[in-house]
Structure to design on (306 residues):
């Protein structure tokens, strides 16, 4: 029987830089498969349905983990509202991720997603009043210019859909900001459960509203066997990649891990070429390099600031 008053777990985590780097490589290797699956699904399955299935699986898995391994006194975040708001932002960001992947070349969308740390830097200065010097503000502006270079040609062909990855970066940056500001209100599994539960509820409400107004574009469809497989890759793959990256940051300094995350773009470029026969344009390469350079500069300033 689980004791309601049982104290929180105390886990001793030992640093292991080599293992942390290896886990980051594993993340960069596997996450393009998740994104490729989401892009393939986007041809027939609406992003809200992909989001619903992904987070419904998360609710079950994290719910079972919490029920069987965590004391009941730790089940509720105190306060709960920041995690609910974070869940809303994460849900909107995830929908934008899948919508962007559906309409844009894979590497273009991923390059724009990497605006997130730059947006987080800007939001931290504005909302959390963290000190951000002119050099880091310059890096944020440079990254925005790089993203506009990537968005430009896509905007000419697909219109406002080209802004979905940038919107995803904004929503996920807001989510990360809340996680930073209210990190102590709950454990990581509770954070994840609140996010997943919020997504399931929001998508359920969206489906009901769409049914009432007769908007069929977001209504769920019965997937075929291959689409069920792709949905499984997205749902379970997102759990694996999140856990792998989280563990990497737990056992190795972020100053070591952060630069290796940009291998993600390389993996996405390879998958985009072999699966979708898409090669990035020179403008996309230039814009992507600007975003990467700006992100690495912000990381470098972060670890070297006084």
């Amino acid at each position: 029987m689980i004791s309601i008053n049982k104290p929180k777990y105390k886990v001793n985590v030992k640093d292991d830089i080599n293992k942390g780097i290896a886990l980051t490589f594993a993340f960069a290797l596997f996450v393009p498969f998740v994104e490729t699956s989401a892009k393939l699904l986007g041809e027939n399955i609406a992003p809200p349905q992909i989001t619903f299935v992904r987070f419904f699986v998360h609710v079950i898995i994290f719910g079972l983990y919490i029920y069987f391994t965590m004391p009941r006194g730790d089940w509720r975040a105190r306060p709960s509202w920041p995690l609910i708001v974070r869940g809303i932002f994460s849900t909107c960001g995830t929908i934008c991720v899948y919508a962007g992947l559906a309409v844009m070349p894979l590497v273009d969308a991923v390059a724009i997603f990497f605006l997130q740390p730059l947006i987080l830097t800007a939001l931290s200065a504005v909302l959390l009043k963290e000190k951000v010097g002119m050099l880091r503000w310059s890096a944020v502006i440079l990254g925005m210019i790089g993203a506009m270079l990537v968005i430009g040609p896509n905007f000419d062909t697909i219109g406002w859909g080209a802004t979905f990855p940038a919107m995803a970066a904004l929503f996920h940056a807001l989510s990360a900001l809340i996680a930073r500001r209210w990190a102590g209100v709950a454990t990581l599994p509770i954070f994840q459960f609140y996010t997943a539960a919020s997504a399931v509820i929001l998508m359920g409400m969206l489906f009901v509203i769409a049914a009432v107004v007769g908007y069929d574009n977001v209504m769920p469809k019965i997937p075929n066997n291959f689409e069920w497989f792709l949905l499984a890759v997205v749902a379970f793959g997102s759990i694996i990649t999140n856990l792998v990256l989280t563990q990497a940051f737990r056992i190795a300094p972020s100053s070591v891990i952060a630069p290796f995350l940009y291998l993600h773009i390389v993996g996405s470029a390879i998958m985009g070429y072999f699966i979708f026969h898409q090669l990035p344009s020179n403008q996309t390469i230039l814009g992507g390099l600007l975003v990467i350079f700006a992100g690495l500069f912000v990381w470098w300033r972060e670890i070297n600031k006084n």
The first helix runs from residue 17 to 41. The two ends are 50 Å apart (CA to CA). Residues 1-11 have pLDDT under 50 and may be disordered. Residues 139 and 294 are 5 Å apart (CA to CA).
